[in-house]
Design goal:
By secondary structure, this protein is of the alpha+beta class. It contains 4 helices and 7 strands; from the N terminus they run ααββββαββαβ. A hairpin with a 2-residue loop joins β1 and β2. It is elongated. The termini are far apart. About 7% of the residues have low confidence.
Length: 149
């Protein structure tokens, strides 16, 4: 009877120690993941000559924070182009795809819409043309009242 009880005690100790050994092996994975998250730096973008912190990126809009007044900004998928008379002239000068929606605002000023990635490529091409200026459409989101914060 004593031999059975010693074996039984040994099995119980093995069963108790086995989960602890398994837990110790898994403890290192979350620590490595946390270290990876801490090392990521905030993304910053330069738009219309200002520096903004990028909060969210979507194909047709971005959510930013203005670093001067810490107010949230909505970057739309519209690029205002001045110095080009018409959409046809813009298409001829750049040989651009027809995926963009081009609307005249006034004489010599156009609004170009598309995804933000496509508009960034278009902006880099437009900067190479003489007499053409671009500006992104930014909308500042309203400030929250104190009870909403």
């Amino acid at each position: 009877m004593k031999i059975f009880s010693n074996r039984f005690k040994g099995m119980i100790w093995c069963l108790l120690l086995l989960p602890m050994a398994g837990c110790q092996a898994h403890e290192q994975k979350p620590i490595v993941a946390v270290k990876g998250l801490v090392q990521q730096q905030a993304a910053y973008v330069y738009i219309n000559g200002g520096k903004y912190r990028l909060l969210q990126r979507h194909p047709h809009y971005w959510l930013l924070t203005d670093l001067q007044n810490f107010q949230q900004v909505h970057l739309t998928n519209q690029l205002v182009v001045s110095g080009v008379r018409s959409a046809d002239e813009l298409h001829k000068r750049l040989k651009m795809k027809s995926d963009f929606t081009v609307k005249p605002i006034t004489d010599g000023v156009l609004s170009v819409s598309g995804t933000i990635a496509e508009l960034m490529q278009l902006e880099s091409q437009l900067q190479q043309l003489s007499g053409v200026q671009t500006e992104w459409q930014l909308f500042y989101l309203p400030l929250k009242t104190k009870p909403d914060r």
